[in-house]
């Protein structure tokens, strides 16, 4: 089997990035369903706020984002799909920013910086390449 044929068949690297981020989100979804340990590191200022219910809710939110991003990897030229994927990064940034600087349940550490860096860099990447990928 030619595994390259399973990858997005498009020009540029954004679709491959969407696929990679979607795959890592699936890992995050699984860990939220199986343990509270990593999620409590993320919300380290209030680890007691991370309950099994909150972790499962976060898992479903993450899985929803992963699904949109996975779909965007294979439909990167579709305006609606592109816009939906872009919004997932905006929402992720808004969530982690507000939990860190407004609600103060998270500290500015590696577990928080990682999704903030991914969301902001991908937002800028997607906005700067909008006309390249979306031919509407």
UniProtKB/TrEMBL annotation:
Residues spanning the signal sequence: none
UniProt entry keywords in alphabetical sequence: Endoplasmic reticulum, Lipid biosynthesis, Lipid metabolism, Membrane, Steroid biosynthesis, Steroid metabolism, Sterol biosynthesis, Sterol metabolism, Transmembrane, Transmembrane helix
Record-level GO BP terms: sterol biosynthetic process
Topology relative to the membrane: Multi-pass membrane protein
Transmembrane annotation, as ranges: 15-34, 80-98, 110-127
Compartments where found: Endoplasmic reticulum membrane
Pfam (any one): Erg28
InterPro entries: Erg28
A GO molecular-function descriptor: protein-macromolecule adaptor activity
GO CC term (a single one): endoplasmic reticulum membrane
Family: Belongs to the ERG28 family.
The name this protein goes by in its record: Erg28-like protein
Organism: Schizopora paradoxa
């Amino acid at each position: 089997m030619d595994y390259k044929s399973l990858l997005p068949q498009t020009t540029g690297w954004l679709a491959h990035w969407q696929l990679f981020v979607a795959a890592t989100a699936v890992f995050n979804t699984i860990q939220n369903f199986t343990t509270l340990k990593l999620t409590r590191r993320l919300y380290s200022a209030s680890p007691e706020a991370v309950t099994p219910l909150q972790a499962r809710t976060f898992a479903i939110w993450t899985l929803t984002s992963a699904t949109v991003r996975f779909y965007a990897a294979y439909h990167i030229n579709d305006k609606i799909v592109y816009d939906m994927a872009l919004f997932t990064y905006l929402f992720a940034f808004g969530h982690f920013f507000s939990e860190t600087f407004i609600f103060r349940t998270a500290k500015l550490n590696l577990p928080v910086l990682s999704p903030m860096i991914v969301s902001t860099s991908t937002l800028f990447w997607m906005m700067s390449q909008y006309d390249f990928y979306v031919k509407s």
